[in-house]
Amino acid sequence: MKLSQLFTKTLREAPTDETAINAQLLIRGGFIFKNSAGIYSFLPLGLRVLNKISNIIREEMNAIGGQELFMPALVEKKYMEPTGRWNLDVGYYVSDGQQGTSDKQDNFVLGWSHEEVLTAIASKFISSYKDLPFSAYQIQTKFRHEPRAKSGLLRGREFMMKDLYSFHADQKSLDEYYEKARNAYLKIFERCGLKAIYTLAAGGVFTDKFTHEFQVVADVGEDTIYVCNKCEYAENKEITKLQDGDKCPKCEGKIDEKKSIEVGNIFDQGTKYSEALGLSFTDEDGNKKPVIMGAYGIGLSRVMATVVEVSSDDRGIIWPKNIAPFKVHLISLDQNEEADKIYAELTKNDSPAGGEVLYDDREDKAPGEKFADADLIGCPIRLVVSKKTLEKDSVELKHRNEKEYELMKFTDIKKRL
Q1: Alpha-carbon gap, residue 172 to 169, rounded angstroms
Q2: Are 184 and 64 in contact, with CB atoms under 8 Å apart?
Q3: In this structure, are residues 336 and 386 in contact, taking their beta carbons and an 8 Å threshold?
Q4: Could you tell me which residue, 98 or 182, shows the higher pLDDT?
Q5: Do 237 and 224 touch, CB atoms closer than 8 A?
Q6: Are 240 and 226 a contacting pair, CB within 8 Å?
Q7: Do 243 and 230 touch, CB atoms closer than 8 A?
């Protein structure tokens, strides 16, 4: 991608109505556009990051047997009423009457969770223990009535989410899958460049059991967790009796109080939804039983925002290589043709850069502006081609997370990508 052809532009100043680092840098870098409080458009650079996060999630969900589907965003009242979640102050309600008529009623809600919808679907296909277990997931937009939409992508009213649901004949089966999901989640966050801590938490409106969250330690986090500095056993402040400085109940290490950001959660939902919506199966002895369910969520845009919060500096974003919009940020100075040749070489399918190159070919920008934009956008590797480097038959290479740069032959650079 040539920067001269990218329709978005970087901004020198942070927007005055955003206090969160993720929102400031993502807007300045041209990754997102703020439409309303808690509602953002993902621009070309931002969508590339979001798609890479999606692909990582898909790979790990498929690896544990998840089957991808896509459910409607518009959820009818008949699904949510039986579980008692219709009247919760979470969703945005939609009437089914014609605009301007007096008989309009709120019979739909914009989907904020899909347990009920998938349970209803599953009831048409599950009848025997032989149909269990199975799991299905989607990656879709969710809508939630968020009164505190002031943290950029960390707390949105409309956001991308992966929600996985699993269906089981007994608790043992659920527990086994729950552990698979836990491990898959830890892999996802690690691949996205995040260190996530598995944390015991409350269930909220999703279950009456204890659940688990995946928390990333960050000073800007809205959550407080108590985590062992030895074995990393952790509990959320909302449910814990632990205090800062206590001994860990698991290994007797020291408990530390930390601020953190929740990037994912998993729930043992028992039979709450299956009993309410009539999802049952016949076991090997011919007995009819309710299906046991689990739910597993990851906010994609929240993951993206968290990465920016914990991986940035005063110059801009420092993207982990797996989710960076581009692997290489190539800068041409002095309007030289050699940079065009290098760009053509790096964008070949068999190139070590894999075509992942953002090329700053703009002729109306000073070198300082180009360097500043490269730091702001935050691709892992910066290459600079100029008269100075070409005099030494070299290209300047610098990693975004390092201060020093080095001059290298182009053939050697290809080996480093």
Answers
A1: 9
A2: yes
A3: yes
A4: 182
A5: yes
A6: yes
A7: no
**Pick from 245, 411, 385, 325: which is nearest to 1 by CA?**
325
- Cα Rg of the chain (Å, integer): 25
Q: Is 346 helix (H, G, I), strand (E, B) or coil?
A: helix
CA distance 119 to 235: 30
CB of 324 closer than 8 Å to CB of 378: yes
Q: Which residues contact 31 (CB under 8 A, 6 or more apart)?
A: 42, 43, 45, 46, 49, 325
Domain boundaries in the chain?
21-313, 326-416
**Is-contact 382 329, C-beta < 8 A?**
yes
Mean pLDDT over each residue of the chain, to the nearest integer: 94
416: pLDDT strictly greater than 60: yes
- Please, which residues have CB within 8 angstroms of residue 292's CB and are 6 or more apart in sequence? 167, 168, 169, 170, 171, 173, 174, 269, 270, 271, 274
CA 23 to CA 5: how far, in whole Å?
A: 24
Q: What is the largest CA-CA distance in the chain?
A: 82
Q: Which residues contact 268 (CB under 8 A, 6 or more apart)?
A: 174, 178, 207, 209, 210, 211, 294
* DSSP letter assigned to residue 246: P
Q: Alpha-carbon distance 392 to 309, whole Å?
A: 39
DSSP 331-345: EE-TT-HHHHHHHHH
Q: Which CATH class is domain 21-313?
A: alpha beta
Residues paired with residue 85 on neighbouring β-strands, in sequence order = none
- Identify any residues that bridge with 40 across adjacent strands, giving them in sequence order: 34
Give the per-residue pLDDT at 100.
62
Number of Cβ within a 10 Å radius of residue 347: 17
Helices 44-63 & 171-191, crossing angle to 10 degrees? Answer: 140
CATH 3.40.50.800 fits 326-416, yes or no: yes
Instruction: Using the predicted structure, report yes or no on whether residue 264 has a pLDDT greater than 70.
Output: yes
User: pLDDT tens for residues 154-177?
Assistant: 989 999 999 999 999 999 999 999
Q: What angle do CA 304, 11, 343 make, to 5 degrees?
A: 75
User: What is d(CA 346, CA 416) in angstroms, rounded to the nearest whole number?
Assistant: 12
CA atoms within 13 A on the CB side of 283: 10
